[in-house]
UniProtKB/TrEMBL annotation:
The keyword Aminoacyl-tRNA synthetase does not apply. GO terms for biological process: positive regulation of B cell proliferation. The gene is DNAJC5. This is ADP-ribosyl cyclase/cyclic ADP-ribose hydrolase. It comes from the Eukaryota. One of its GO terms (cellular component) is plasma membrane. It comes from Oreochromis aureus. It is an enzyme of class 3 (hydrolase). The chain crosses the membrane at residues 12-31. One of its GO terms (molecular function) is phosphorus-oxygen lyase activity. Keywords: Disulfide bond, Hydrolase, Membrane, NAD, Transferase, Transmembrane, Transmembrane helix. Coiled coil: none annotated. InterPro entries: ADP-ribosyl_cyclase. Belongs to the ADP-ribosyl cyclase family. Its EC number is 3.2.2.6.
């Protein structure tokens, strides 16, 4: 009898210990995930001076926290974008599609020549991050979130659509777009560049759009590609269009040789 009681006590103790460990583990995991995106947000934000990072974080969270992660409209991020206006120098603006790495390697080294949305305050804070809210929860999550194409109104996609629209609205002068010769459709109608940015470039504020077709070995397309006709058709007719085929190593050279003048990169 006594022996049985002792056994029951030991079993109860083990169950309680396992339950406590599980609960502690889960809540610690949650805090850590939450801390990771929040601390990334703040450490990236604080590299830019003169911004109230807490205010930006609060506006960021307000857009998606406690919401169905497939039902966050683009406009939800308007207050955040409005709180961090873009671009001191709109003349250096670079757009891109399918060329993320080559473009950002270049702009990291040649801030004197070009910058992209991902070099602006909000773009650089949120570049490469994944996040969402959930109905009935007060946190920002980074796992269990819908992927880019799982549903149209997911928070990540809505943020980038909102930011890209504001970025394109701010463009002026001669703007550059780096497209990829490695795909058969460098001007892809599904892309943010084609679906949001191109149609928002407006003359006379913007005078020209200069496409750089980045050609790797065995490129599949160049400036004669049929999809570029669609680009020209969608572009404001008062914006001058040009396209130049440029080998990828030439773009890399521009990054590695700061003595090359911006206008002579390709
Ligand atoms: N899954 C996840 N992320 C995606 C997906 C996808 N299927 N498609 C696009 N993205 C995100 C990724 O972060 C990717 O690096 O969009 C980025 C760019 O995708 P691209 O198709 O290469 O280019 P595009 O959609 O045209 O967007 C680039 O928008 O970011 C702005 O101003 C920027 O001009 C640039 C343009």
């Amino acid at each position: 009898m006594v022996w049985y009681k002792r056994k029951e006590n030991i079993a109860g103790g083990i169950i309680a210990a396992v339950a406590v460990t599980l609960i502690l583990g889960l809540s610690l995991g949650l805090t850590r995930r939450q801390k990771t995106i929040k601390s990334t947000f703040f450490s990236r934000c604080e590299k830019f001076k003169e911004h109230d990072c807490q205010k930006l974080w609060d506006l960021f969270e307000k857009a998606h926290v406690n919401k169905d992660p497939c039902n966050v409209p683009v406009e939800a991020y308007d207050p955040l974008i409005a709180a961090a206006p873009f671009i001191p120098d709109c003349k250096k603006m670079m757009f891109w599609s399918g060329t993320k790495d080559v473009v950002h390697d270049l702009t990291a080294k040649r801030k004197d020549c070009y910058f992209t949305l991902e070099d602006t305050l909000l773009g650089s804070i949120l570049d490469g991050l994944m996040w969402c809210g959930k109905n009935g929860k007060d946190d920002t999550f980074t796992t269990g979130c819908p992927g880019w194409s799982d549903c149209e109104n997911n928070p990540v996609r809505s943020f980038w659509k909102c930011a890209s629209a504001a970025y394109a609205d701010a463009a002026c002068g001669d703007v550059t777009a780096m497209l990829s010769g490695s795909t058969t459709t460098p001007f892809d109608p599904e892309s943010i560049f084609a679906s949001i940015e191109v149609t928002r470039l407006k003359a006379p504020r913007v005078s020209s759009l200069n496409v750089v077709m980045v050609l790797q070995m065995n490129a599949k397309s160049d400036c004669t590609n049929a999809s570029l006709k669609n680009l020209q058709n969608q572009l404001d007719p008062n914006i001058t269009y040009s396209c130049k085929d440029v080998a990828e190593h030439r773009v890399e050279q521009c990054g590695s040789q700061p003595q090359i003048m911006c206008g002579s990169c390709w």
